[in-house]
Specification:
42% of the residues lie in helices and 12% in strands. The chain has 218 residues and is an alpha/beta fold. It folds into 2 domains: 8-19 and 96-216, Rossmann fold; 21-91. Helix 9 links the parallel strand 5 (188-191) and strand 6 (206-208). Helix 4 packs parallel to helix 6 (123-133) and helix 7 crosses helix 8 (175-184).
């Protein structure tokens, strides 16, 4: 295999294993409608392709970029609206993994890689997915940005590398994922099917069109 020195694989989640737009879009619309009632914005129905740019950011990053002048209390309220909506959809099993995700995790686990979950998400969101999809059968550890005060992923990696051995490979779809690899000089796999744009994905060492493409590299 091309990446035959890899011992630890760091997986992004949304846009890599989980098609999160399916549950994010309804939650975002609810939060936006709340802002309409408060007089902060004009009424609008958002399309999914308009919202995909925000997936992969932490809640704090997203609202600071999308509406930087919005009072912090309102940002926090909107974040809770989205989070609560997604949790309800997870409980109702409306969320979807990309086809082949579980099979790929099983394949990698069978090859004795250390699998590490690293997402810019909140803990309750992460735990809900762990429970629904039995992710603890595949991953050796779970890291979410909320547990680290929403610091960048490349800084959270400093904690991961004290626990899990190199060499490392990171798999993701956004610039935050490739930043980990580029700052630490190890390879990355970019998921063309996720939410990153062409500029972001150009920062990956290798690129795949669907999750099955990982088998060509690992």
């Amino acid at each position: 295999m091309i990446l035959d020195e890899t011992r630890t694989i760091i997986f992004d989640y949304d846009g890599t294993l989980h098609n999160s737009l399916h549950i994010y879009a309804p939650g975002f619309q609810k939060a936006y409608n709340y802002l309409v009632t408060r007089g902060f914005v004009e009424s609008k129905m958002w399309k999914e392709d308009e919202l995909s740019q925000w997936l992969g950011f932490s809640a704090k990053e997203m609202w600071d970029i999308f509406m930087p002048m919005l009072p912090q209390a309102e940002k926090d309220k909107c974040s809770r609206i989205i989070g609560d909506s997604m949790l309800r959809d997870i409980e109702q099993k409306k969320c979807k993994l990309y086809a082949g995700s579980i099979e790929m995790l099983d394949y990698l686990k069978g090859k004795d890689y250390h699998l590490v979950f690293l997402s810019n998400c909140k803990q309750d969101y992460m735990n809900a997915h762990i429970d629904l999809f039995n992710l603890d059968e595949y991953f050796d550890a779970f890291y979410c940005s909320e547990d680290f005060g929403f610091i960048p992923k490349y800084e959270i990696f400093n904690s991961i590398k004290t626990v899990f051995p190199g060499s490392y490979t990171v798999i993701g779809d956004r610039s935050q994922d490739f930043e980990i690899a580029n700052k630490n000089c190890f390879p990355s796999i970019g998921c063309n099917y996720g939410y990153g744009n062409e500029k972001e994905l150009s920062g990956a060492t290798y690129r795949i069109n669907d999750i099955k493409g990982i088998k060509l590299l690992l």
